[in-house]
């Protein structure tokens, strides 16, 4: 029997089987991709952070750190901050709970967290890749740190502590660890040792 005389029903069954096989392969590939994405999200948000620092300040000088003289004080009124993001100033009576946020957090709460000795790490989500964000996250200690995106940031990354700020272009900059070592849980903040929990969660808190 020539190819032209092939049973049309048999040919249809074979074509249907091929379509079913292709569909199954696509489904398997899709599940693999989704699985990898889920694993990536889990790794980013839930694996232990690597940062380990000593509380307090030694007075070490870090190249590029800017110092300010912002006042402190609690207020329920809107606050206009002279730095972007803020590096201190008047703030809401309730502090932001430290942790990792996927959305911008209110300035007035984050500033209060810094008053307690937290370091606020902000980044431009439009200019930082997922891998770079994971690298940046790896510097964070398990507490007294806030990581959040920030709209209108003047650089790709900005680190802020009370009246101290460092503007950076890359998450591999060695000064990130040095900044944490010097200003994390500093005794030179208005309320050293105050809690970084028990306050308020901002939008998008993941851990």
Draw up the topology in text.
Elements: H1 8-46, E1 66-67, E2 99-100, H2 107-115, E3 119-123, H3 130-137, E4 145-149, E5 157-161, E6 164-168, H4 175-183
Parallel strand pairs: 2-4, 3-4
Antiparallel strand pairs: 1-6, 3-5, 5-6
Structure description:
- The chain has 207 residues and is of the alpha/beta class.
- The protein contains four helices and six strands; from the N terminus they run αββαβαβββα.
- It is elongated and about 90 Å long.
Task: Provide tags for this entry.
6 strands; 31% helix; alpha/beta; six-stranded mixed β-sheet; 4 helices; 2 domains; 207 residues
Count of individual domains:
2
What integer value in Å does the Rg equal? Answer: 25 Å
Helix and strand run = HEEHEHEEEH
What percentage of amino acids are in beta strands?
5-15%
Number of H- or I-type helical stretches: 4
Condensed summary:
The chain has two domains: 3-45; 48-183, no CATH class. It contains four helices and six strands. It has helices at residues 8-46, 107-115, 130-137, 175-183, and strands spanning 66-67, 99-100, 119-123, 145-149, 157-161, 164-168.
């Amino acid at each position: 029997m020539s190819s032209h005389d092939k049973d049309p029903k048999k040919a249809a069954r074979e074509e249907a089987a091929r379509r079913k096989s292709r569909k199954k392969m696509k489904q398997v590939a899709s599940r693999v991709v989704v699985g990898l994405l889920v694993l990536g999200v889990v790794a980013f948000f839930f694996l232990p952070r690597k940062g380990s620092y000593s509380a307090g300040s030694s007075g070490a000088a870090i190249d590029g750190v800017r110092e300010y003289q912002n006042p402190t004080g609690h207020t329920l009124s809107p606050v206009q901050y002279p730095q972007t993001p803020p590096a201190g100033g008047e703030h809401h009576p309730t502090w932001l709970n430290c942790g990792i946020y996927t959305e911008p957090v209110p300035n007035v709460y984050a500033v209060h967290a810094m008053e307690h000795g937290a370091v606020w790490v902000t980044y431009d989500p439009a200019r930082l890749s997922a891998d770079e964000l994971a690298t940046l996250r790896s510097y964070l200690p398990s507490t007294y740190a806030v990581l959040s995106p920030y709209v209108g940031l003047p650089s790709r990354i900005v680190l802020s502590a009370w009246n101290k700020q460092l503007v950076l272009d890359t998450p591999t900059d060695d000064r990130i660890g040095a900044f944490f070592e010097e200003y994390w849980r500093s005794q030179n903040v208005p309320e050293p040792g105050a809690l970084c929990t028990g306050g308020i969660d901002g939008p998008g808190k993941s851990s």
